[in-house]
Design a protein that fits this description.
The protein is mainly beta. Helices cover about 10% and strands about 40% of the residues. It is built from one helix and 14 strands, in the order H-E-E-E-E-E-E-E-E-E-E-E-E-E-E.
Length: about 180
């Protein structure tokens, strides 16, 4: 039979093990704590002052509505036309390490013209520029797509997403899609 001293030793050992295990474990976020995000912009909606594009669900704003054009469109009546420079950009925040972010946009303008950029806000930790399409539709629109696993050291938990045309020839962008999932 266990005496009081042995019983105290076993309880003390169990208490110590429980404390050690709980201090060493890392709390993982559940999907409920880290919600998914979906942003879709077909360039059809603009803010009242005409400066911002509005997402399909009217929840998010995307900069550079001034570059909106009715000359060509993949869906709807408008796209973003860039003749050199930057356009259609958004910063998403509240990102956590190992979140999965998928970004895509369609472009029309020829091979090696037009870029989808995903970067941290200071461009010091993460910068990725995608020019080559993974898919081309029947009308010649090319899809640029990036899949990102958010790095541990992402400053402020923010990613900046934008399109860029480094040439002096027009490139059209349409149907921006951003999806964030908890990983």
């Amino acid at each position: 039979m266990l005496n009081m001293k042995s019983l105290s030793f076993y309880f003390g050992l169990m208490f110590f093990l429980l404390i050690a295990i709980s201090c060493g474990s890392r709390k993982e976020q559940s999907p409920a704590e880290n919600k998914s995000l979906e942003i879709n912009c077909s360039v059809e909606k603009v803010s009242a002052d005409g400066s911002m594009l509005i997402s399909e669900d009217s929840t998010y704003t995307i900069i550079n509505a001034e570059s909106r054009s009715a000359e060509k469109a993949r869906s709807g009546q408008y796209s973003v036309k860039l003749v050199g420079g930057y356009g259609m950009g958004i910063t998403i925040d509240s990102l956590n390490p190992n979140d999965y972010v998928k970004v895509s946009v369609w472009k029309l303008g020829g091979p090696e013209k037009g870029t989808l950029v995903v970067t941290d806000t200071a461009t010091t930790v993460f910068y990725n520029a995608q020019k080559l399409p993974d898919k081309i539709d029947e009308n010649g629109w090319e899809r640029l797509e990036q899949e990102i696993l958010v790095p541990e050291n992402l400053p402020g938990g923010k990613l900046k997403i934008y399109v860029w045309n480094e040439t002096s020839e027009p490139v059209y962008f349409d149907d921006l899609s951003i999806v964030k999932r908890w990983k």
